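Tokens as discussed.
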């Protein structure tokens, strides 16, 4: 049996979530192994540590790094696979309760993907150069305290710019989540979701992920909480798939061809043309 458009979006969204979760865990593990928060947020460790999930003995797998970084370009696809079914479920409440919050959410996801995930790999360059020098000459340079201080200043500056770059996307995602929560809570009689659909809202997910992280020991709490953004969208995708999976309404008109009394009949939704 062929999948409906909503089902296809659900599968694509879950695959994107899995890819993004891999990227989160890879960069969080690199951060724990090569970077530090004791002196300055995002600063380079004086001595690297083994990763808990991945091996970084030689600076890390180039394939793993590229795969994690490449997750940034799939955010527009992830945004479409998330917001199109969401719009389908909310559209009964009107433009400002369906199109508008979905557009804000899609914008936020695209900014986070482009400004944050695609740029994560930039944070690995200086720590790798310091902890895994390419030659003996480079190794001698890393022994200089001046070089180390230069790397620290440069690395923390990159981190600050990265945070500022993704800030509009982070704000947009939170505004959209609050907007959707309000629509579902106040207009459930006009949409395809009951009020308890808000249990899948990213705001609620952030709350229980924060509680779970506080109960877990390090370093696992660090990985769970560090992947907060992925959990929020992933749980939303699961909720959308649960409530809309059996819906037969298409997001877009699908042309079908039928033969009737020897003539071709092509129908587009409710419009037919012989």
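Sequence:
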């Amino acid at each position: 049996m062929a999948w409906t458009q909503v089902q296809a979006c659900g599968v694509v969204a879950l695959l994107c979530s899995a890819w993004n979760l891999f990227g989160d865990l890879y960069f969080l593990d690199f951060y724990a192994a090569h970077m530090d928060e004791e002196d300055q947020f995002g600063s380079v460790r004086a001595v690297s540590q083994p990763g808990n999930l991945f091996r970084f003995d030689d600076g890390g797998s180039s394939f793993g790094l590229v795969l994690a970084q490449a997750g940034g370009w799939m955010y527009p696809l992830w945004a479409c696979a998330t917001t199109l079914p969401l719009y389908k479920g909310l559209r009964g409440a009107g433009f400002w309760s369906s199109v508008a919050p979905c557009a804000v959410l899609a914008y936020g996801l695209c900014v986070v993907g482009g400004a944050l995930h695609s740029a994560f790999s930039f944070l690995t360059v200086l720590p790798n150069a310091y902890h895994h020098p390419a030659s003996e000459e480079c190794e001698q340079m890393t022994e200089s305290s001046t070089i180390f201080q230069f790397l620290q200043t440069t690395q923390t500056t990159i981190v600050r710019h990265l945070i500022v770059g993704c800030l509009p996307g982070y704000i947009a995602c939170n505004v959209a989540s609050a907007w959707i929560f309000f629509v579902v809570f106040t207009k459930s009689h006009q949409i395809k979701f009951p009020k308890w659909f808000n249990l899948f809202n990213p705001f609620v997910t952030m709350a229980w992920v924060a509680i779970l992280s506080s109960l877990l020991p390090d370093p696992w709490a660090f990985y769970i909480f560090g992947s907060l953004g992925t959990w929020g969208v992933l749980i939303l995708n699961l909720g959308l798939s649960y409530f809309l999976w059996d819906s037969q309404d298409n997001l877009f008109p699908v042309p079908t061809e039928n033969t009737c009394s020897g003539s071709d009949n092509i129908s587009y939704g409710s419009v037919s043309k012989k």
